[in-house]
Amino acid sequence: MNTKTDMIEWLDQNDTQFIELADAIWRTPEVAWHEFTSSKLQAVLLEEHGFRIRWDVGGISTAFVAEWGEGRPIIGVLGEYDALAGLSQKLQTEQEPLVEGAPGHGCGHNLLGTGGVATAVAVRRWLETSGTRGTIRYYGCPAEEQLSGKTFMAREGAFDDLDAALNFHPDKLNCPSKGSAVGVYDLVFRFRGRTAHAGGSPHLGRSALDAVELMNVGANYLREHVTEKVRIHYVITDGGRLPNVVPETADVWYFVRAHERSELDSVAERLKKVADGAALMTETTCTCTFRGACSNVLSNVVLADAQYANMEELGPIEFTSDELEYAARVNSAFPEEDARTMFTAMRVPAEWRDRVSGVCGRPLIGENFPAWDEEQISTGSTDVGDVSWITPLSMLRTACFATASPGHSWAIVATAGMSIGHKGMMHAAKTMAATAYDLYTKPDLLAAARAEHARATEGHPYSCPIPDEIPAPRVANPVRGVQ
Length: 483
Hints:
Blueprint: H1 4-13, H2 15-27, H3 36-48, E1 52-55, E2 64-70, E3 74-80, H4 109-130, E4 134-141, H5 149-155, E5 164-171, E6 175-176, E7 180-181, E8 183-192, H6 208-222, E9 231-238, E10 249-258, H7 261-282, E11 285-294, H8 301-314, H9 321-331, H10 353-359, E12 377-378, H11 384-388, E13 393-399, H12 410-416, H13 419-441, H14 443-457
Parallel strand pairs: 3-4, 3-5, 5-13, 7-12
Antiparallel strand pairs: 1-2, 2-4, 6-13, 8-10, 8-11, 9-10
């Protein structure tokens, strides 16, 4: 294996092991901080391919780094494997859980992580057989859905010596990204009042639940007075136990999203004042716990263009008639216009509009498209942002889902565990492996990516948004072996 073509052919000929890994993780979905089986499955395969494994990165039981090679360049590939609560789903085109209330891979992280594993293994084999000097690293990153796994790893310095990093996310289109995404603060507010009999002596009680509800009302009014890219959302995680007992304690969990750190700080402080006001009105007390955070995304244009060039060399994903029919049945559960929204936030050049119009509304889109989202800010978030401020990084997207599938839904799970998702995953692995090949063999390309990153971060280098005194979550590990 001496050429880029050799590496792509190797992935085509050896995809079974990676498809089986992705499906094994799909069948054992685990939520954030609890991905013990998923992380072990990945680490075992990487160890079988000769990678050195280091666990407990960032103080997290399910975080690991797998490394092969020596010297520079050091190229990192980011992977994830956490699932989403309550999204269990059978491999079928109608909504029906495998296990009622259980988690499911409603963001396709079984594909995301395994695509990164496939990339790392292919690059490792090429480095060895070609005699090329360099290091390839795979980062097993937990808890992306709680937006802090990579941030804790970054705080420890896990990414500091990387020359560049590659990442992909399953999606409905094949394209790199030049856009950004907002950062997040993860905050829990706990109110404490005084219990009493709600019917017999309500005047003696001070309801913590009343305080939570008043805080949420205040937060909803606050939404009117923030900028358009700010998002504030919450769930009540403790609201009392019995309606005839005035709740002594109540908790509400908030995510605050904004693009700039200064705006995040400002909105979070205003939200804390809302909480203080709710406590004052109800004669309760309030404590705020800062649980985690992530930074906004800094996309690297040089790497995005390199990713697209390699996608074009690979050609489109070829979906079968059965796969198109399956995706069409999934789409039928959602409004017809949802299948036409993929390009609405992009600045599509005039010369591409006919081609884009020709694919809109299809159940699956296998064609490759350039990054048309430069300078656009998504109101979603990812802890990939923290890595992007440390080293040049490109976020790649590939078609793994039916075109009308809402994010974080059963429809995502329904294709993430079958051939549609497999094809998108391997398309991403081949694209990232080919781009890694370019970074190892074209010093000018890597230098250009790093120069762009240096310009973008000049005067404001990375600063971890999670304070040093906030510990990483530690969960008892029931799965031992390679750890």
